[in-house]
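for the writeup, i need someone to sanity check this before i put it in the appendix. the sequnce is what the collaborator sent (i think, or maybe the updated version? ugh). structure was predicted straight from it, no edits. if anything looks off just tell me and ill rerun, i have time this weekend
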Amino acid sequence: MKKLFYLIALLVSVSASLNAQQEAHYTQFMYNKLYINPAYAGARGVPSLTAIYRSQWIGFDGAPQSLLASFNGPFLSKRVGIGVNVSHVKIGLQRDFQGSLAYSYDLVAQENVSMRVGLSGSLRSFGFAYNDAQPLQPDQSVEDQRISDFYGNVGAGVYGTIMGKYYFGFSVPRLYSNAIGIANGNATVVAKEFQHFYGMAGAIIPLSEDINLMPAVLLKYVKNAPFDADINLNLDIKRKFTAGVSYRMGGDGAGESVDLLVLWQAAPQFAVGAAYDFTLSSLKDYNSGSVELMLQYDLKKVDGAGGKSKKKNMTNPRFFM
């Protein structure tokens, strides 16, 4: 039985290495940029808290579940930003905890143009919770057994905004390819981290005084994995309610998923968001889709939140800063 559990762990790690998908993916990426780009820290000009919970492939035993909490804001001046991310990902018996610190600096800092560069440092705990397994027969050799190890890394990114209506960014959250190994007895589990290259862009297109069209795209490339992209189109109504749809490439033909997104600006400083993913890949027959919930709170009021911005040409900075 003990060998069986190590075999399961090996298969999980090999699968992660072959598919190169070690970083959690969130549908509401447009509200969660700090997770993949340290240069976003402080970009919105106010201290902000964000929390996201994601349950992927509901009904699929051992499917990924992830929880993320982040904080970012200006530090001492508007040109300097700091950020903190704390995340937990659970896939089968795998347990992944990560914490990171981010620093950004605005190289331009003009009224209508910003270009920030950012660096991050992270510490990751990667392991397996064999004591959470449910074997067919009791096995004393794996009861109450948890195996984990720690890995450090650094990341970098750039993030720019133009006239408060356009944003773009490029980032690599983990620059160093750690060899992940967990040894116990004669069994060794080995995997390898791959750099994830992210590109993002978005815009706000006013359709009327109360309605804005907001397209966004997130591009991802990982070695040994197909090129991936999320293509999103949101509609902002009276700066109170946002609804949209996304298409995620990948999967095994038709794409990975089609996603529905909603966001309610419950108060000038508080927003609630949700997303539901309809699986398109061959896994669609074995799960009921994926669900994502988000809470965002600003410790100070954003100029224009809940109404028109005081800044020229910036209709609704919440979605872009």
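The first strand starts at residue 48 and ends at 55. Residues 2-19 form the longest helix (18 residues).
thx in advance!!
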